[in-house]
Amino acid sequence: MDKADKLSKITISLHWITAVVIMGLCAAGLYMTRAEAWALYPLHKSIGVLVFFIAILRVIWRIRNGWPAAAADYSHIERQMAKVIKWVLIIATLALPITGMLFSGASGHGFGIFGLVIVPSHHMPDNPAQVLAYSEFWAETGASLHQAAAYVLIAGIFLHLAGAFKHHFIDKDATLKRMLGK
Ligand code: HEM
Predict the structure, then answer these.
(1) Could you give the domains of the chain?
(2) pLDDT digit string (tens) for 19-67?
């Protein structure tokens, strides 16, 4: 279990695995859509689906363990901001995979995990090179939500990083150190 001066190995491992993978997926997502790097799509989707399971594990862990207590005394406004950003990050890590799966599934492109098909592609019978949407409405809704959630997540990550650096370099407290296992 987490303590104010020492975080559990589970909290630290889940935090860093999620952080590295999600930042990688954001960078890959932004790049592949702009550069039309189609080869990256299956990789992005496979890792994105795996993140969904990690995100669920994190939620279960948070419910069982609660949020770690603050490492020092902060002003009311700072505590409120930290709380909002934590919620934004946890909701966005669930929303991104869900909306990605909705978009990819409904659009007919399909998705899976490294070759293990979860929703198959929906090819046009007379032109198999093209795909046909299972549902235009859900494909468009999923695409818009995935993009919006991605931008909210990226903003949340920057604010979270700003907070971590402020605690470390200005307040000189243990917030960052305890997440590094020190
Ligand atoms: C935590 C997990 C995920 C993150 C952080 C993430 C992040 C992103 C980002 C930043 C973009 C670029 C958005 C834009 O500027 O238009 C993107 C695009 C995309 N993502 Fe994800 N994604 C995740 C999970 C998934 C999953 C699970 C799928 C599908 C199974 C998926 C499918 C896609 C597709 C198909 C695009 C391209 C959209 C387009 O071409 O307009 N993503 N993702």
Answers:
(1) 9-179 (1.20.950.20)
(2) 999 999 999 999 999 999 999 999 999 999 999 999 999 999 999 888 8
Q: Is 142 in the pocket of ligand 1 (CB under 6 A)?
A: no
Q: For residue 34, which atom of ligand 1 is closest to its CA?
A: 15
Question: What are 24's two structure tokens?
Answer: 């990688």
Distance in angstroms (rounded) separating the CA atoms of residues 162 and 79: 14
> Each residue of 150-180: b (16+ CB within 10 Å) or e?
bebbbebbebbeebeeebbeeeebbbbebbe
CA–centroid distance, 5 to ligand 1, in Å, is 36
Amino acid at 146: H
What is the largest distance, in Å, between two alpha-carbon atoms of the chain? 66
Side chain identity at residue 69, one-letter code: A
